[in-house]
Specification:
Elements (H helix, E strand, L loop, with lengths): L1 E9 L5 E10 L4 E5 L6 H8 L7 E6 L2 E2 L8 H5 L2 E5 L10 H10 L5 H14 L15 H13 L5 E5 L7 H16 L3 E5 L3 H7 L2 E6 L2 E6 L9
Parallel strand pairs: 3-8, 3-9, 6-7, 7-8
Antiparallel strand pairs: 1-2, 1-4, 4-5, 9-10
Helix pairs in contact: 3-4, 3-5, 4-5, 5-6
Length: 228
C-alpha cells in the first residue's frame, strides 16, 4: 500500500527532516509511527498524501509514484485516501451530515448515494442521531468521530492519522482507537503518528520508530519504547 525508497526531505533552511527512508506497509496493516518531538514523524506522514514533497527518492501509494505527480493531480490522490488530524479540521458552517457529505460532493456522487453512504458511516461512528448538529455543538470526541467518518466515507484503502487522540481525554481516546481498530478489521490500512504510550503498548500493532529523520526500529507487535 505504501512504499518508500531512499526518501529524503530537506527544507529550504537546510534542515533534513527525513534521511534516506526505506519502508513498505502492506494493505490491511495497522502501523504506529512513534518518536520524539522533531524526529520527522509529521513530515513522514505528510509526504504520504503530498502535503510535503520529498526532495529525492520515490514514494508509491497503491502502486502510484506520488513523487512524480503534478500539483493539479494531488487532489485526485487525496480522494483515494482518508486523512484525520489532531484538530479535526471540520467546516464550522456545515452540520455533521454536510461535513461528511462534502468529501463525496466534490467527486460529484449521486445525491441519493451520498445520503445513504453518509448515514452508513455516521451509524458506524455512532453519530447518526447528531447528523444535523454543527461542530461547535459537539464534544471533542464527537468532532473527531465526524472527522473519521469523513475520512472513510469514500471507502479509502488507507487512512492516515496524525495525532488523532492528542486533544482528547483518555476515555474518549480509547473510544476513538476502538473505532480505528474496527475500521482496520474491515481491511483498511491505518497509519497513525502518536505520542500515546498507553495505546501503543496495549494494542500491540506494528511500530515504526523515527529518530533524527531515520527509522531506528520497525517491530510487529511492538511497544512505544520511549521515556519522555
Amino acid at each position: 500500500m505504501i512504499e518508500m525508497k531512499n526518501v529524503v526531505k530537506k527544507y529550504p533552511n537546510g534542515v533534513a527532516a527525513v534521511k534516506g527512508l526505506n519502508i513498505e506497509i502492506k494493505q490491511g496493516e495497522f502501523v504506529y509511527i512513534v518518536g520524539p518531538s522533531g524526529a520527522g514523524k509529521s513530515t513522514f506522514i505528510k509526504m504520504m498524501y503530498r502535503e510535503e514533497q520529498a526532495t529525492s527518492g520515490e514514494i508509491k501509494v497503491d502502486g502510484t509514484n506520488i513523487t512524480a505527480l503534478k500539483s493539479k493531480e494531488i487532489p485526485y490522490l487525496r480522494r483515494t485516501m482518508g486523512v484525520v488530524f489532531q484538530d479535526f479540521k471540520l467546516l464550522p458552517r456545515k452540520n455533521v451530515f454536510e461535513n461528511v457529505a462534502f468529501a463525496l460532493e466534490v467527486i460529484e456522487q449521486d445525491k441519493e448515494d451520498i445520503r445513504k453512504r453518509v448515514m452508513e458511516v455516521l451509524k458506524l461512528v455512532g453519530l447518526q442521531k447528531k447528523a444535523r448538529m454543527f461542530p461547535d455543538e459537539l464534544s471533542g470526541g464527537e468532532q473527531q468521530r465526524v472527522a473519521i467518518a469523513r475520512s472513510i466515507v469514500n471507502k479509502p484503502k488507507v487512512v492516515i492519522a496524525d495525532e488523532p487522540t492528542g486533544n482528547l481525554d483518555p476515555e474518549t481516546s480509547w473510544d476513538i482507537m476502538r473505532l480505528f481498530d474496527e475500521i482496520n478489521s474491515g481491511g483498511t490500512t491505518i497509519i497513525m503518528a502518536t505520542h500515546n504510550r498507553e495505546i501503543v503498548n496495549t494494542m500491540r500493532k506494528r511500530v515504526i520508530a523515527i529518530e533524527n529523520g531515520q527509522i531506528v526500529r520497525d517491530e510487529r507487535g511492538g511497544d512505544y519504547g520511549y521515556e519522555f
